[in-house]
């Protein structure tokens, strides 16, 4: 097959040819072509489409004005593939169908839409390879870009190619609507030789060499500039005359050149071009209705096309996006408004109400309540299609058109909430600043303060958020008690994240305020949780246990609403840890994860996965925990966000992987410093303490555990800070300084005794035994072994056998010591807790025992991803289910399974 490369682009064409060849071979490829306007990215997209013989192709031409319309880009790409939607799992089918307006699904979650797009591209490519090209990707609407970039990052062996073209000047960093984190190819200007060749191709006859040199230098090798600069040059330039160099940027000079060309056209052609520039769909029928209203004949379109500025076919497209920009901005403000109003009039309100409202908004010369109300309705429809960012943009425009102060404030608050939810804190704060400058009543002022506090907590989980939330709650208390109580609970939540870095006593003030604001009757689960935590903060742990248990029961109720579960289950799981209630913790963590999965909430999922990961670690199921920790990373990679690493840190510490644990704990410290998340160093120091204890490095363990708790003062948060006391007691006792642990044990015993569970009783007895004299120690060791043996906490149970066996050995009871250490070693080995297993083995070796280490198994041959897939097959999941769980296409799952079968010699899923 003969391939004619684009002039001066042999390397770029070679890369694109290789991309197509790889996809023909069954792989998937993604590429971002990045370069300045006019450098030839679109020409390269045309090349790759022309070379895609045997491919099905899909094309998206993004338009800047459509950035506010949710899933406009995805509609261009996927609507022609809608016949394959039925092959997707139901949740993904409904989400994609709802995003495209093909089904009545309510509020499709963006994460499910993204998973559905991945599956849809994979299904379409089953028949023949698929090529998707996206031009001017920087202008794709945010919802579409998030979905498509997510899918592009997860493609592997589906025979799909996705090529983006992105305008990105060197001085501007990529925006959040661009395809970040994907392979890129920078498209630079042409070489001087190729620039001369291109220039001479459009300059007939002989030309002064100085003219050629001046044009080549001025264009910097930009092909569009080489084509357009000669047209804008004055006669003195073309004859080799002299003039001062232009100070205008190249892009501006080209756009001005287009504006001059447009200005030289007849009035009717200019009016046609303005209507085409204002209407981003390029729908010829719609433009015809508009031009008929203007009294323009068919000659207007013909003259515009003859000028080489537009192409008229199935769609009206501009020669280059800068032509559209030049046409639009060369018109006067009133001309643009008049054209927008005209297009609003001719747009069908039944089939395209959002675009009609959008045109009406930009056609308004001042406040207009009817247009603002229509924008508000459009924002509601955008939200129903999962376009939260579009909702924010539409409401923001509605705010500008609203004259009534109260209604303006309500819309601004709603727009700010939407912007915050969409991950655009800057827009949210700008909207709030509009409201803050007006005369607000206490309720709205409280809502503004609450919105600011939530933004602060989301963007920087540090010391500022608790105080901001507290102030907002106080403002809301007299006007919206339920919202105020929710806000006080958020204060407690924020303070847990801030950890020792919390700058004020926000929790105590929130607890006191909550007591003055009684719960409704009957109380919500959230109210029970707030009241219980308030008692713990003000009166101590023992007094709080009954109330907190009632809160646990309420959240464990099957009738709990998914909305309340998604908002509060993380905090109630922390509460279950604080009550040493493993059974309820396991139930609630599983429910939280299921809710997050079912809702497709990419923001909630990492927290739910991490908490479930903790439960698996406590149960000694490190393989399952490792799988979930890997999934946390997969979620973050898929959606392009920073991943919480606490789950992986838990696994590494319990496994005794020193290098990995230290590296992860350092990352936790660094991330906490960046985000102000003061709990991060606490978790990392506890992990190091547990690691060092597992390795028998008790002095280092004592130092790390002490650092984890020393900044908290008299009252510890539930969970990790309390666990650090356990590590400190063991470390100081085994390094020969039990007297140092007296205070730590006293604080620990206060918490365990009040809870009264086998978990709490076993931990207290094990810690007490380490500090007891020989006369009392054995009774406590035996109690610890029995109590923890009645739980599912296999790691803690094995540790009870371990320290009991070590004590027996020091006491000279060699056979009894061997029995306990063998039990510990067998448990630790079965759970792959290598640090503790080696510690038990050292104890056995010292007693003359020969210890055989685990030789490993066939699973060591599998990659982490293959291990994940095998575990999910064992759970009974189908390939589509596994793909949805791991954010892979079913075809990629099939590919991994073929590798697994080959490595393990298996021939069926049942054998796995």
From TrEMBL:
UniProt-recorded Gene Ontology molecular function terms: adenylate cyclase activity; ATP binding; DNA binding
PROSITE patterns tied to this protein: HTH_LUXR_1, HTH_LUXR_2
SUPFAM superfamilies: C-terminal effector domain of the bipartite response regulators, P-loop containing nucleoside triphosphate hydrolases, TPR-like
SMART domains registered for this protein in UniProt: HTH_LUXR (SM00421)
Pfam families named among the record's database cross-references: AAA_16, GerE
Keywords: ATP-binding, Nucleotide-binding
Any one of the GO CC terms: cytoplasm
Protein name, per record: Transcriptional regulator
Lineage: Bacteria, Bacillati, Actinomycetota, Actinomycetes, Kitasatosporales
């Amino acid at each position: 097959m003969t391939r004619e490369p684009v002039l001066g682009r042999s390397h770029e064409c070679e890369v694109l040819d290789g991309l197509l060849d790889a996809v023909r071979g069954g792989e998937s490829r993604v590429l971002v072509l990045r370069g300045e306007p006019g450098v030839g990215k679109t020409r390269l997209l045309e090349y790759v489409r022309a070379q895609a013989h045997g491919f099905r192709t899909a094309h998206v031409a993004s338009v800047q004005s459509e950035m506010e319309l949710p899933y406009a880009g995805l509609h261009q790409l996927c609507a022609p593939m809608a016949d394959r939607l039925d092959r997707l799992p139901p949740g993904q089918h409904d989400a994609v169908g709802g995003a495209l307006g093909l089904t009545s699904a309510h509020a499709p979650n963006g994460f499910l839409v993204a998973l559905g797009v991945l599956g849809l591209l994979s299904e379409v490519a089953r028949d023949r390879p698929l090529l998707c090209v996206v031009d001017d990707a920087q202008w794709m609407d945010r919802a579409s870009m998030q979905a498509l970039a997510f899918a592009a990052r997860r493609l592997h062996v589906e025979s799909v190619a996705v090529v983006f073209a992105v305008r990105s000047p060197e001085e501007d960093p990529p925006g959040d609507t661009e395809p970040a984190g994907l392979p890129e190819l920078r498209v630079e200007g042409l070489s001087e030789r190729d620039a001369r060749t291109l220039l001479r191709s459009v300059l007939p006859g002989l030309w002064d060499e100085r003219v050629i040199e001046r044009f080549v230098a001025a264009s910097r090798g930009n092909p569009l500039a080489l084509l357009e600069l000669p047209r804008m040059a004055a006669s003195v330039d073309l004859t080799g005359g002299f003039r001062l160099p232009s100070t205008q940027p190249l892009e501006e000079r080209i756009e001005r050149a287009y504006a001059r060309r447009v200005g030289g056209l007849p009035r009717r052609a200019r009016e046609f071009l303005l209507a085409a520039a204002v209407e981003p769909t390029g729908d010829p029928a719609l433009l015809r209705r508009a031009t008929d209203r203007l009294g323009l004949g068919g000659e207007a379109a013909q003259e515009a096309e003859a000028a080489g500025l537009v192409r008229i076919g199935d769609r009206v497209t501009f020669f280059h996006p800068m032509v559209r920009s030049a046409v639009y901005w060369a018109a006067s403000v009133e001309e643009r408004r008049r054209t927008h109003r005209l297009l609003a009039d001719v747009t069908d309100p039944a089939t395209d109400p959002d675009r009609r409202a959008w045109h009406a908004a930009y056609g308004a010369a001042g406040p207009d309540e009817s247009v603002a109300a229509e924008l508000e309705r459009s924002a509601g429809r955008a939200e129903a299609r999962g376009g939260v960012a579009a909702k924010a943009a539409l409401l923001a425009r509605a705010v500008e058109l609203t004259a009534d102060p109260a209604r303006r404030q309500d819309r601004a608050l709603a727009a700010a909430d939407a912007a915050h939810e969409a991950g655009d804190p800057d827009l949210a704060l700008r909207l709030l600043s509009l409201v803050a400058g007006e005369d607000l009543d206490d309720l709205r002022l409280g809502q503004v303060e609450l919105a600011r506090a939530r933004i602060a907590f989301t963007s920087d989980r540090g010391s500022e958020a608790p105080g901001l939330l507290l102030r907002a709650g106080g403002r809301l208390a007299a006007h919206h008690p339920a919202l105020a109580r929710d806000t006080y609970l958020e204060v407690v939540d924020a303070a847990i994240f801030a950890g020792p870095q919390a700058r004020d006593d926000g929790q105590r003030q929130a607890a006191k305020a909550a007591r003055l604001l009684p719960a409704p009757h009957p109380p919500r689960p959230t109210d029970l949780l707030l009241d219980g935590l308030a008692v713990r903060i003000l009166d101590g742990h023992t007094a709080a246990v009954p109330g907190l248990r009632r809160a646990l029961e309420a959240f464990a109720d099957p009738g709990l609403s998914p909305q309340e579960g998604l908002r509060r289950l993380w905090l109630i799981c922390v509460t279950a840890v604080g009550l040493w209630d493993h059974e309820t913790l396991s139930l609630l963590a599983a429910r939280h994860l299921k809710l997050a999965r079912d809702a497709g909430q990419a923001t909630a999922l990492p927290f739910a996965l991490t908490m479930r990961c903790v439960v698996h670690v406590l149960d000694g199921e490190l393989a399952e925990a490792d799988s979930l920790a890997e999934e946390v990373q997969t979620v973050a990679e898929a959606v392009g966000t920073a991943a919480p690493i606490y789950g992986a840190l838990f696994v590494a510490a319990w496994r005794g992987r020193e290098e990995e644990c230290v590296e992860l704990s350092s990352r936790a410290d660094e991330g906490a410093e960046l985000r102000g998340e003061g709990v991060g160093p606490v978790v990392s120091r506890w992990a190091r303490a547990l690691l060092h204890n597992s390795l028998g490095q008790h002095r280092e363990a004592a130092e790390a555990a002490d650092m984890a708790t020393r900044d908290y003062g008299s009252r510890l948060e539930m969970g990790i800070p309390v666990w650090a006391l356990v590590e400190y007691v063991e470390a100081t006792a085994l390094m020969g300084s039990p007297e140092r642990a007296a205070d730590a044990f006293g604080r620990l015993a206060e918490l365990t005794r009040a809870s009264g569970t086998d978990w709490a009783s076993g931990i207290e007895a094990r810690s007490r035994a380490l500090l007891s004299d020989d006369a009392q120690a054995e009774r406590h060791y035996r109690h610890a072994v029995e109590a923890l043996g009645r739980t599912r906490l296999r790691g803690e149970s094995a540790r009870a056998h371990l320290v009991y066996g070590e004590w027996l050995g020091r006491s000279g009871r060699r056979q009894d010591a061997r029995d306990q250490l063998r039990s510990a070693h067998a448990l630790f080995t079965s759970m792959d807790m290598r640090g503790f297993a080696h510690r038990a083995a050292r104890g056995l070796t010292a007693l003359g025992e020969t210890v055989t280490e685990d030789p490993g198994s066939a699973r060591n041959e599998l990659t982490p991803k293959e291990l994940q897939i095998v575990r999910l097959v064992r759970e009974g999941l189908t390939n589509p289910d596994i793909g949805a769980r791991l954010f892979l296409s079913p075809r990629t799952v099939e590919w991994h399974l073929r590798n697994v079968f080959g490595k393990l010699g298996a021939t069926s899923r049942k054998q796995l």
